[in-house]
Amino acid sequence: MSFLKPLSTIALVIMAFIFIQCSDDNVKLTTPVKIRLTDAPAQYDKVNIDIQSIQFHSSNDDTDENGWQEMDLLNAGVYDLLQFNNGLDTLLVDQELPSGTVSQMRLILGDNNSVVVDGVSYDLDTPSAQTSGLKFQIHDDFIAGIEYKLWVDFDAARSIVKTGNGKFKLKPVIRTFNEATSGSISGLISPAEAMPTIHAVIGLDTVSTIAEENGKFLIKGLNAGTYKLSIEPIEAYEKKEVEDIAVTIGEITDAGTISIEATVQNN
């Protein structure tokens, strides 16, 4: 009897180990995900986008037959993109999602899309956005336990097209970036009345913004490298270029105060 008792104890330990191991195998790994909406400014009064859903295309087993999974959108409805520029953003998604490889995301829009020009509101025609969604490429991983932060940068200026009959269409220009793989450039335009568009140029790539009323600007989501700032003010001021702006991942490079000269008037 003394010999059988240790054997039964060992058997129970082995069975418990197997049970725990099987339980661990059934645990689904998750990743905390935050997705924010931001915008490159545009010369409109408002750009209203009706966001009804956001989805991602993943390799995990919880997607539908087409590989898409719904996210928990915090607030469905109309967003004025022009409220979220020069470093401002708004949180769209904040949830735990299954870990895995993500290839695409898409925004599904409703019917209440419009642009306001000189105080007049015009409907935005967005047929493809309402059916298949506004798709953008991600090709990234949701790693278990590591928070994933993604910004959806909606370029309002390049996304709105005026048609020949006085109507407006939405042809979205969207880029995405995450905090771990991008840097930023900030600066101050003097005088602020120059109201320039600022382009950060590296090779064939350009990312743009418009300075705020106080002259400040911030361009986010830049890859590491050395950039040229191409500054295009209103007609009363001269264009300007600033070379050798070094961008480092995870940091904001301060370009300092950039002075713009007034155009010389010939009498």
Automatic annotation (TrEMBL):
The keyword Signal applies. This is DUF4382 domain-containing protein. Residues 30-172 form the DUF4382 domain. Keywords: Signal. Pfam families: DUF4382. SUPFAM superfamilies: Starch-binding domain-like. InterPro entries: Carb-bd-like_fold, DUF4382. The keyword Transit peptide does not apply. Residues 1-23 form the signal peptide.
